[in-house]
Amino acid sequence: MTETTSQSAPAPADSRANPRPEARVEQALFQVKRAVVGQDAMLERLMACALAGGHCLLEGPPGLAKTLAAKSMATVLGGSFTRIQFTPDLLPADIVGTRIYKPSRETFDIELGPVFANIVLADEINRASPKVQSALLEVMAEGQVSIGGQSHRVPSPFMVLATQNPIESEGVYALPEAQQDRFLMKVLIGYPTDREEHEIVHRVSVKPPEIQELLSVEQWQDLRAATSDVFVHDAIVDYAVRIVAATRRPAEFGLGDLAPYISYGASPRATLGLVSAARAMALMRGRTYAHPNDVYSIAADVLRHRIVLSYDALAADVSVEAILGRLLQTVRPPNITPNQTPTAGANTNTNAATATAPAPTTASQPANPATQPPVQ
To answer: What is the distance between the alpha carbons of residues 45 and 121, in angstroms, rounded to a whole number?
Structure first.
């Protein structure tokens, strides 16, 4: 009896010590939801950005837990964390760092700024001047900062979570398009329901829950690696390409009435963002392959800040949300059908599916039949 117990015990212990990636993500989201009531879509998008290696811009009126959600997510993910409160008198050197002269040595020392952390919270980013906002361009795109002719790498993994208030017009500076394009997603936050607000009062008003760190930097890196391994069939890539192409040439997709309202469509960075975010959504949903619904569910968050509206759209009161709604309803996703044929030498994957693109395409990535969906 003693020998049998000692031989069978290590398996469950190892399972608890090394849970599946989707289980780790679920535990992390559960921990964040202890502090943030409702806003499930926002928290899911924040986690998707963390897994995909992107940055996230949160926009909504004051008091909707934007900062709380960002701080809670940073606590759960582990690593170093800094918060920068953007103000009109902020300077670029206050963010990235500067050179300081040392009279005793008659040399300059480099003092690195608060941007050198795994997670940087840029609170109320639209309150700083454009030159300060642009100081984040290099670090968000390249993961490095240039000071005094020298480049300094930021810690890895690195993520910027920014918040902004859309209802004020005085003392704020709208983010330039080049800056917004660096964010993988722009998430709009709405008011909670009456039931959720009732729960907020009971949970937060007396003693707010304390958030615990669940992941280490190494585990966060492992989750990003697992996200990169999610299989994306060429039909899914074609779907993402067609969605982005429809923002540039709407007439070719039967949306000619939208052409006067769009000055500039999304760039190829949007296509890369759709695919990487779809990988993250697939991992969070417990799959090793991306599904068209993964692309569809995050398309609006990836595209809404990359489309530049024309003056005709502003005059006609046509919003980006309305344009994206029409576009996503029109661009047809690949056809998905269940696979009923067991794979030889492997267990049948009940989540497997057959993807058929509207137009014939050729798969550009090899798939493991045991873990990836068979494709026609």
So the answer is: 16
How do 150-153 and 185-188 pair as beta strands? unpaired
Measuring CA to CA, how many Å separate 366 from each of 71, 144, 230, 279, 335? 39, 33, 12, 16, 20
Structure tokens at 40: 């499930």
Residues 181 and 47 in one domain: yes
Same domain? For 174 and 255 the reply is no
The C-alpha atoms of residue 185 and residue 347 are separated, in whole angstroms, by 37
Continuous H helices in 104-186: 130-134, 136-142, 177-180
**Of 19, 22, 6, residue with least CA distance to 285:** 22
Question: Which CATH number belongs to the domain containing residue 249 in this structure?
Answer: 1.10.8.80
Range among 67-81, 130-144, 195-209, 318-332 with highest mean pLDDT value: 318-332
Domain total of the chain: 2
258 in any annotated domain: yes
What letter would DSSP give residue 365? S
2 part of a folded domain: no
In whole angstroms, what separates CA 375 from the centre of its chain? 28
Tell me how far apart the alpha carbons of residues 52 and 49 are, in angstroms, rounded to a whole number. 5
Instruction: Kindly give the interhelix angle for 292-303 and 320-330, rounded to the nearest 10 degrees.
Output: 160
Whole-structure pTM value: 0.81
Pick from 189, 205, 221: which residue ends a domain?
A: 205
Question: Are 146 and 239 within one domain?
Answer: no
Domain of 235 in residue numbering reads as: 230-341+349-356
Q: Does 169 share its domain with 47?
A: yes
Cα 79 vs. chain centroid, distance in angstroms?
18
- What is the DSSP track for 29-76? HHHHHTTS-S-HHHHHHHHHHHHHT--EEEE--TTSSHHHHHHHHHHH
Per residue in 271-284, pLDDT (tens digit) is 999 999 999 999 99
Distance between CA 51 and CA 282 in Å, rounded? 11
Q: Is 212 left (phi over 0), alpha (psi -120 to 50) or beta?
A: beta
pLDDT above 70: residue 4: no
The DSSP result for 253-317, as a single string, is: GT-GGGGGGEEE---HHHHHHHHHHHHHHHHHTT-SB--HHHHHHHHHHHHTTTPEEPHHHHHTT
